[in-house]
Specification:
With about 110 residues, the protein is α+β, with helices and mostly antiparallel strands. It has two helices and five strands; from the N terminus they run βββββαα. The model has no long low-confidence stretch (mean pLDDT about 75).
């Protein structure tokens, strides 16, 4: 049986995904670290990181994608370029906080 890592060569850059049946690969080894925060697709039971790779585990398969910037190394660049759907939420939260602080001083 093969490892999930051996199949990652087909991920050529951000936005590329592979889906692999769990029964076709060995269990993930200790190099795959559980992600403490991840916006995962429905049906995900766990999310893992391995360098620039992010794997979503469902009951029957792993879906893996490549991030240009690993969040452990470059969290801000990851938010801007790989998790761009989260960036507007962060901007709104910061703007709302600044507005609240400014208005509470009046």
């Amino acid at each position: 049986m093969t490892t999930l890592e051996s199949l990652l060569g087909s991920l050529t850059g951000p936005g590329t995904y592979i889906t692999v049946p769990k029964d076709s690969v060995e269990p993930l080894d200790s190099n795959w670290i559980p992600a403490w925060f991840s916006v995962a697709p429905p049906g995900t039971i766990a999310s893992y990181r391995y360098g620039h790779y992010n794997a979503y585990e469902s009951a029957t398969e792993y879906t893996v994608h490549y991030d240009k910037y690993a969040p452990q190394i470059d969290p801000m660049l990851h938010l801007l370029f790989d998790a761009h759907f989260i960036a507007p939420v962060c901007v709104i939260a910061i703007a709302a906080s600044l507005y609240y602080v400014t208005m509470s001083k009046k």
